Amino acid sequence: MKTFLIAALASVAALASVPASAAEIAVIVKTVNSTYWQNVQKGADAAIKKAGGDYTLTFQGPASESAIADEVNMVENAVNRKVAGIVLAPSDPDALVPAVKKAWEAHIPVIVIDSQLAKGADKYYQSFLSTDNKKAGELCAKALIDKVGTTGKIAVMSYVAGAGSEIGRVGGFTDYIKAHSKLEIVGPFYSQSQMATALNQTTDMLAANPDLKGIFGANEPTAIGMGRALVQSGRAGKVVAVGFDGNTDLQGFVKDGTLQAIAVQGSYQMGEKGIETLMKVLKKEKVEKFVDTGVVLVTKDNIDKPEAKNVLY
């Protein structure tokens, strides 16, 4: 690690004489078609302005979170452009490793945000900034148990199977449910982070399970689709629902009682701290290997309070 850090910093110093590309910081996320990732961009933009200097920021992501090959290409292209550094939210823990390794071999520092890369890949990046997804999943499970009790049937509406955040989040949720209740879990169903898919899956699942007591939507598009299905089926407020992330649609569902709670990540903070951490690496300053960017459980009781407003978007 020390050897790489020295090499990376030497490389950055050497690249400083190269005009345009050396000053580019590439932020590459899972998709640009989500307010969650757009909020990450806002944080990154703010941090790059604050940093000053000659750095410019580019922001990219595929059309959808399931377009993993497109994201791999974006990272490889950034390496080929000889960018000064990369902030990356990997859509797949395994598929992105070779591309991140190429950055490491090219002495380009990488800060990983939101989702973990596969075990053993930590030598290829300098820091990982994320919600502790396992703890966040447990928080959602506890909120659901508090409302539905410890017996009956609940459903899990998930997004992309195998994504690092999904493994921690849904794993933490289901493990907590199994350890602290006798609730039967239906699913998980995978929406591929497509709202329309989540809506259709939830509609079908609700029709097949008239006795359902609770439901968990594990990311923004999935939770929105889930909420809309509850409204359209007339089950809003009758089935206890907990979602994840905090855009205006989900805030509306909390306010009108469709969702009882949403777990909201510090997405703005992820973008902001991702850039700040990369800048520290470029200045040869020490950085932590893992930074927990936090999560807040937002309910009707606290949605207008500062703790919630600081993370909602």
UniProtKB/TrEMBL annotation:
Keywords assigned: Signal
Main subcellular localisation: other
Top-rank taxon: Bacteria
A single MF term (Gene Ontology): carbohydrate binding
One Pfam family hit: Peripla_BP_4
Subcellular location: Cell envelope
Residue ranges annotated for the Periplasmic binding protein domain, each copy included: 25-286
Record-level GO cellular component terms: cell envelope
CDD domains: PBP1_ABC_sugar_binding-like
InterPro entries for this protein: Peripla_BP_I, SBP_2_dom
Residues in the signal sequence: 1-22
Family stated for the protein in its record: Belongs to the bacterial solute-binding protein 2 family.
Protein name, UniProt field: LacI family transcriptional regulator
Native organism: Rhizobium oryziradicis
